[in-house]
Design goal:
Blueprint: E1 7-15, H1 24-46, H2 51-63, E2 84-90, E3 95-102, H3 108-118, E4 123-125, H4 126-135, H5 149-160, E5 170-171, E6 176-179, E7 181-187, E8 193-199, E9 220-222, E10 227-233, H6 235-241, H7 243-252, H8 258-273, E11 277-283, E12 288-292, E13 296-302, E14 309-313
Parallel strand pairs: 3-4
Antiparallel strand pairs: 1-6, 1-7, 1-13, 2-3, 2-8, 5-6, 7-8, 9-10, 10-11, 11-12, 13-14
Length: 317
């Protein structure tokens, strides 16, 4: 079948995001930031660019915004550091790249792309990933660049309640539980799909914890034969279920539609295991899924210039 129109779908995290906990000003800020990310990514597609470049452009906007738990807005670890993860995958050739536990790379998504295109590896971590990024000429910053006072306050609150799992997930902007990861999936004029994800992980995380975002098949997956997926949620559950790949596999081997596959994994398998969160996904015909089992998910899509649509709550249409 001929590929569908150029399309971009994004997310900025899923969780217990409710209207009563959001001020009108903060709500507008999220919509504006999502719209800016959509426009940046779509501009690449509209000018004949590739899907891999479009997802990078969209994610870079969100990494540079303190509103999202990625890049500039990354949450703090138990030791008071910001450790960042990111991944990207090209559905045309199944090439992929990822970085994990980095602290000095301004835009981890660019580092993930460099791993994919400039090395023989798929994932680099920590100091090695940072050295590689520097060698590739990527922008390196002092770790203090990622410091955000509200995120730091979030850590202090979590440390006071270190025995509580939920305390680690209280977001300072919504005063509620939130899983903040950003992601994007794009379909370009050549019929190629790409997916990418970036995160600061989980507040108060310890022992070098890595979630699903940089893991190909869990947080990110793309294959022209099925779909592209970017995940957001409780990473341990997404890893155990290989959520992103499972959705693609249900389409490729089971003949399910994108919507059926996404619902089967996110609304059934994930809650059955005890996890929650969501995904954005896109198939080669341009069909979109923005499926989540949590109360809300920052999300949006665009198919025509100037007509991007953004959403926050479950009942947003």
């Amino acid at each position: 079948m001929a590929p569908g129109p150029i399309t971009l779908v994004i997310h900025g995290g899923a969780g217990t995001i409710k209207r009563e906990n959001m001020t009108p000003e903060r709500e507008k800020a999220y919509h504006d930031a999502l719209q800016q990310a959509l426009e940046a990514g779509y501009s690449v597609l509209d000018n004949g660019g590739r899907s891999v470049d479009a997802v990078i452009a969209a994610i870079k906007i969100m990494e540079d915004s303190p509103l999202f738990n990625a890049g500039k807005g990354a949450v703090f670890t138990h030791d008071g550091k910001n450790e960042l993860d990111a991944s990207i995958m090209d559905g045309s050739n199944l090439m992929a790249g990822a970085v994990a536990g980095v602290t000095t790379i301004k835009n981890p998504i660019k580092a993930a792309y460099a791993v994919m295109t400039k090395s023989e590896h798929v994932m680099l971590i920590g100091k090695g990933a940072e050295k590689f990024a520097e060698e590739q000429g990527l922008e390196i910053v002092n770790p203090s660049y990622f410091f955000d006072s509200l995120r730091y306050e979030q850590l202090q609150n979590a440390l006071k309640k270190d025995t509580s799992k939920t305390a680690a997930l209280i977001d300072p902007y919504t005063k509620d539980k939130k899983f903040g990861t950003v992601g994007a999936v794009a379909l370009d004029q050549f019929g190629n799909i790409a997916a990418a994800t970036s995160t600061g992980g989980m507040t108060n995380k310890k022992y070098g914890r890595v979630g699903d975002a940089p893991i190909i098949g869990a947080g990110t997956y793309a294959n022209n034969k099925s779909c592209g997926v970017s995940s957001t949620g409780w990473g341990e559950y997404f890893i155990r279920l290989s959520v992103a790949h499972d959705i693609a596999a249900m389409m490729e081997y089971g003949g399910l539609s994108l919507e059926q596959a996404a619902d089967g994994v996110v609304m059934k398998k994930l809650p059955a295991l005890g996890g929650d969160g969501g995904i954005v996904a896109l198939d080669r015909q341009g069909n979109i899924a923005m499926t989540f089992s949590s109360a809300g998910m920052y999300r949006g899509y665009i198919r025509k210039k100037g007509e991007g649509k953004t959403f926050i709550y479950k009942d947003d249409q």
